## 1
Amino acid sequence: MASQFDVIILGGGPAGYVGAVRSAQLGMSTALIEKDKLGGVCVNIGCIPTKALLHSAYIASLLREAKEFGVEAGAVKTDYGVAMQRSRKVSDQNSRGVEFLMKKNKVTVVKGAGVLQPGREVKVRKRSEIRHEHRGTPRPVRSRTQMSGAGDSA
Ligand SMILES: Cc1cc2nc3c(=O)[nH]c(=O)nc-3n(C[C@H](O)[C@H](O)[C@H](O)COP(=O)(O)OP(=O)(O)OC[C@H]3O[C@@H](n4cnc5c(N)ncnc54)[C@H](O)[C@@H]3O)c2cc1C
C-alpha cells in the first residue's frame, strides 16, 4: 500500500528542504525523500564544511601576523586533523538542524533513493537495496505534485 502525500520532494538539499518546509507551511502533507544526509551538498560537503576549514586557516593567518599588530602569540602550530574534525562536527550539527526543521514543520522524511514513476508515484529504495539492486521491493509513495531538488547528482 503506497503512502499518499500532497507533495513529494526528491532530495533534501537546500532546494528540497526549503521547498518542503514551505509546502508544509501552506498546509500540504509533504514527503521529502533523501538518499544520503539531509542538507545535501551544501551542508555536508560544500558550503558549510569548507567555510569551517577556511575559518581555521583565517585564525592561523591572523596569529602569524599578530606581531605586526603588537600582539605576541608565540609559535603558531596548525593541526589539519583537528580542523577537519571540527569541520565535520559543524556539518553534522547543521544536518541535524535540518532534521529538526523537518520534524517541526511535520514533513515526513523518507530515507532512500527515489525514482519517479508514471502516475505521480515515486519508488524509494533503501541504501542497502541500492547496493544490491536485486533485493527488496521499493516502497512506493504517491502524491498530487512532485518537485525535484535532487541537485547535480540527479
Ligand atoms: C565545495 C563547495 C562549496 C560550495 N560553497 C558554496 C557557498 O559558499 N555558497 C553557495 O551558495 N553555494 C555553495 N556551493 C554550492 C551549493 O552546495 C549548491 O548550490 C547547493 O548544495 C545546491 O542545492 P540543491 O538542493 O539544489 O542540491 P544538493 O545540495 O546537491 O542536494 C541534492 C540532494 O538530493 C539528494 N538526491 C539526489 N538524487 C536523489 C534521489 N534520487 N533520491 C533521493 N535523494 C536524492 C542528494 O543526496 C542530495 O542530498 C558549494 C558547493 C561545493 C561543492
Note: The two ends are 26 Å apart (CA to CA).
## 2
Amino acid sequence: MEQQILNYKIERLLGEGGMSQVYLGVDQATGQKVAIKELLPHLANHHDMRLRFLNEAQSLAKLNHPNIVRLIRYEEVENRLILVQEYVESVNLEEYITKQRGLIPESEAKELFCQLLDAFAYAHDNGIIHRDIKPSNILITPANQIKVVDFGIAKIAGGDGTSLRTKTGTKIGTPVYMSPEQVRGQVADRQSDIYSLGVLLHQMLTGRAPYSLDTEAEFDIETHIVKDRLPRMKGIYEYVSNGIQAIVDKATAKEKSARYRDCQEFMRAIKAAKLPRFSESPDWREWLRDKRVIAGLVVMLCVMLGFAGFKYSGIPEKWKKQDAAQAYEQGKLLYDAKKYDEAKVFLEKAATLGNPDAQFRLGLCYDKGKGVKQDYAEAVRLYRLSVDQGNAAAQFQLGYCYDEGHGVKQDYAEAVRLYRLSVDQGNAVAQCNLGACYELGTGVRKDYAEAKRLYRLSDAQGNAQARKNLRALLSSFAQAAPAGK
Ligand SMILES: Nc1ncnc2c1ncn2[C@@H]1O[C@H](COP(=O)(O)OP(=O)(O)O)[C@@H](O)[C@H]1O
Ligand SMILES: [Mg+2]
C-alpha cells in the first residue's frame, strides 16, 4: 500500500468493490480525514470506466444531503482517477447485518430505512438514479446515521442489467438486488431503485438476502427475479408483520407501475405501518380481519360472476381496474415468455378495460406483427389510446410512427412533440431519439449541444444507442477541431 496519495497520508484500506479501492487518508496540512476512492489501475485505461468514474464524481457533486456521502474533490493525475470523499466512520450494511448484528427488528429498521428513503427521494428529485443499491453501498455510523455511497459507476457495475464482464468473463457485482427490468437488460429508472430498496428492506428485516450466489446459480437467481415473488419474510423470521410484508411486496412488484410511485410514497407507507404484535400468527380470524383478504374474496366472486355472464359495465370502476391490471400482468408475463398468441388474449381484455400499459403493449404486437398480423394503423390507434392516458412508452412509440410514417403520414414536428412528452417523463429511448432529431435537424432546428445533452441523459440510463450516437457526435467534433480554427 502506498504511503501517500495527493497530499493525503494513507492510513489504511477501508474497502474495495469490483472496480475501486477506498482508503482512509489524512490531509497532511489540516489533519482532515477523508475517504480516497481510486479506480483500480488495470481499469484506468478502460474508456467506459473512466467515464463512469467521472460520472460518479459529477453525480456526487450535484448532491448535498446528510445521508449521502459528500464529494470533496476529484483528480486525474498520471493516469490515476481519484475521488476524495468525506470519511464516514462506519461499517457498510453488508458487514453490519452479516457479521455484526444479524437482522434488524422492525421498529429500528423503519427508522434506518426512512433515512435511506430520504436520501433517494432527494437524489431522484435531482435526476440521479443510483442503479446499484445494495448493502455494501450503504454505510451506517455508530450513531445509526445512514450514508449512501457508490453513485454513478453503478451502471457499469451491473446496475442497469448491461452488466460489465471482465476479460475473463466473470461478472462484477451481484444480481440479487436487481429489478426484473434490469435483469432483462432494460433501462433502470427510479422505479428500479425502489425495487432494490425493497430487497434491501427484506434483508434488513430477516438478516438474509432473498437469494444467494452461494447456493444458487446466477441464472436461477435471475429467473426468480423475473418470475417469482420474494420469499415470505415470516418464513425466515416469524415476527415480521404482515403490514411490512405488504410494503416489501409493493416495492418489489414485477411491474414498475405496481410499485411505489416515488420514495416519498414509499416513506409514507413505512411510517403508517403498524408495528407487529407478538402473536401475529396467521389464524383465520386475523386473516379475515385483513381488508385485503376480504377485497380479494370479493374480487374473486365478481370474476366468477363475470364468467357467469355478467357485463363489466355493471361492475364498479375500481374492480374493473384491478381486473384489467391482473389481465395485463398475465398478458405481460406471456409476452415476455414470447407466447404472443396467448398474450394477445389477456392484453386485449386489459386494453378493452382501459389499461394503458396493455393498450401500449397490444399496440406493439400490431406494430411488430407479434401474435397478430402486422397492422400499423391498429398499432397507431392503440398507442393513441395509451398516449391519451399519459403513457410514456406509448408517447415514444407513437412519436416513432410519425418519425417513420408508419400507419400515419410522416410528420417530424409531431414526432418531436411526442418524443418531448415522453422525455419529460424520463423515457430513455425518447431521449435518444429526440437527441437524434436535434442532431439531424428533423422537426426542430439543428442543435448539437441539445443533442449531446439528450444523448447524455439517455446514456446515463444505460441506453447503448445513445452512447453510440454521443461518441460518434463527439468524435466528429474532435476530428473537425484540429483541422478547423
Ligand atoms: N466515504 C467512505 N467512508 C468510509 N468508508 C467508505 C467510504 N466510501 C466507501 N467506503 C467503504 O469502501 C467500500 C467500497 O466503496 P464503494 O464506493 O462501494 O466502491 P466500489 O464501487 O468499488 O464497490 C464500501 O462498502 C465501504 O465499506
Ligand atoms: Mg460498492
Note: The chain has three domains: 4-86, 91-272, 390-485.
